[in-house]
Design goal:
The protein is mainly beta. The chain contains five helices and 38 strands. It folds into four domains: 58 residues; 163 residues, Sandwich (Immunoglobulin-like), CATH 2.60.40.420; 154 residues, Immunoglobulin-like, CATH 2.60.40; 164 residues, Cupredoxins -  blue copper proteins (Immunoglobulin-like), CATH 2.60.40. The longest helix has 58 residues. The radius of gyration is 27 Å and the shape is globular. The relative contact order is 0.12. It catalyses: nitric oxide + Fe(III)-[cytochrome c] + H2O = Fe(II)-[cytochrome c] + nitrite + 2 H(+). Pfam families: Cu-oxidase_2, Cu-oxidase_3. Keywords: Copper, Metal-binding, Oxidoreductase, Repeat.
Amino acid sequence: MERWKMFDHCVEAIRTMINKWKKFFIKLKFYMETSLLVLLYILVFLLLFWVVSILQSASQVSLLDGESSLRFQQSPIVNQSTDILQQKYHSYQPLLKNQTMTSNQAEDQASPSQTAITGTKKDGVREFIITAYPNKVQIDQNLTIEGWTFNGTIPGPVLRVKEGEKVRIILRNRVPNLKTTIHLHGIPKRNAADGVPLLTQPYVNYGEEYVYEFTAEPAGTYSYHSHGDVQQLDKGLFGPFIIEPTKPTELPDATTEWVVSLDEMDIQGEGNAPPATDGNRMDQSMMQRMMPNAILGSADVYNVFTINGQRSPSEPFKAPANKWVRIRFLNFGFQTHRIAVEGMKLYVTHTDGYKLPAAQQVNQVVISPYERVDVYAIGEEAGQFRLYDTDRGHSEFGMEAKIQLTPNDNITQETIPIQKTNDNKPFYQGLQVGIPGSDSTQYDRVYNMLLGMTMGSNGMSWAINRIPFSSYEEINPYVVQKGDIVKINLFNMSPESHPMHLHGHHFSIVSINGTTISESWLPKDTVNVMPMQRISIAFKADNPGQWIFHCHQSHHADSGLVTYFTYESKDSNEEEGS
C-alpha cells in the first residue's frame, strides 16, 4: 500500500513537472514569435530604407520622364535676417483662470456642435480675440478629454469675414509651458502675418499675446491653427476660417451651409486603431506600438474619429430636400478620409478655397490633411441619411453623422456648371486634374524635391533631397524672384503619403506620374503625394517674403520634412552678376 502511495506521488510530481515545462515552452514560444516578429519588422524597415536609398541615388540622374535635361538646382546660402517686419508683440501678464468667448462676439450655430463668431468691427478692422487655454472637452456622452482649445472648443470657433475686410486676430496664450503661434492656412496674406515661429515671428509664450493683421482675400474656405509641434494640433488648436464673397457668383444661392471638420485622436483606453489609410493601405500601427520613435506609421495610431469635435455627433445635419446645400469639408487630422453622403448628389466646386472652372460630380469626397473641399449637394427625397467615412473602421470609430432632409415640394430651378470628365485622364483624389497635353509654360525656375527618409545624427529622419530640416539658419532656402513662374517636381520615394503645403501662395498641378497637363483645373495650396508618386506643381512668385514648404502630416514635418522659399531682389542679383 505504501508503495502505491509512493508511486502515485511520483506520478503526480512528474505530471506537475511536465505541466510546468509545458507552460515554460508556451511562454518561450510566445516570446520567440514576438522577437522574430520584431526582428522581421526591423529587417523589412532596413530593406525598405536600402531600396529607397538606391532608388534615390538612381533618380538623381533623371527625376521625371522627359525632364532629364533639367539640372538639379541647389540654392545658395542666404543670410537669414532676424528682423521682424512690422512686428506687434507685447508681453502680457498671465491670467490664471480660463477665458471664454467675450460677450461682444456674436455666437451662432454653423453646423452641429460647430460654433461661429463674427468678431467686432473697430475703426474699419474686424477684430477677433482668440485665446488658447486648456479645457475639458466632451467628445461624446462617454468620453471627455483634457484638450488645448481656442476659445474653449475643439475645433475652435468658425471665424467668418467678408472678402476685402481688414482683419485683426489677437492671439492670447494661456496654456502653461506652451510656446505657439497662429497660422492662417491657405490665405495669401503678407509675410509678417504668416505665423511661422523663428521665421516670420517669435514664439508667443505662456501669458503673452500677438497681433496679426491682414486683408481677407480671396473668398473661400480656409483654416487657422497653431504652428508649433504636432502635439499642439493633436490636442485641438485649430479651427475653420471662412471668407464670404462680396459679389454675386455663378453658383446657386445655397441657403443651407454645413461646416464639416474632420479629425482623429489617440485616446488611451478607447480601443486599437483601425487599419491605416494614409494612401498606401499599409497598417504600420504595430511598428509604432513596438517602436514609438519610429518615423513610419506615426499617423496610424489614432483610435477616435470626430466630426466637428464629436464622435458620431448626436445632432443631425439638417436641410430641405430639393435645395442646394453648400458643404465645406476641412481635414484637421493626419490621415486621408473618403467621405460619402447618402441621399445626395455631390458636386465639388472648390479645392483649397479656390473655385474650379466647373463643378465635378463625385461619389465621395477624398480629402487629405489640411486640404479643404467645397461641395454643392442636393437631395431629391426627404428622409434620414448618413455622412460617413468609407474606410474600414473609421465610421465605426466615430467618423459618421446623421443627415435629416425635410420634405420640400418647392424644387429648385437653379443649376451649376458641370465639368464632363474622362476616366482615361489623370485624376487627383477623384477629381480630374485638367486637360492632358504638352506643358508650354516657360518656367523661370525648376526645383526637384525627393521626399523620403535619411539617416542622420539622431537616427532616421524624414527629409527633402536627403536633407532633414534642422533650423532656418542651417538649411539652404530655395530662391525665387518676384514675378518668377516656378515649377516644383515632387517625387515621393517613401512608403507613406506626404500632403505638401506651400505658405503664402496657391499653385496648380501640372503633371502626375509623367502625364503633363496643358490646362490645369485644380487650384491648390496643399497636395497629397502618395507613395512612389510623382507630382509637379507650379506657382507664380507674387508674394515677397520667406515662405515655408512642408509636409502637413505634422509627424513628418517634426521629423525633418520641411524647407522654405525666399525672395531675392532683382537689383541684388544684377549687382552680383556685374
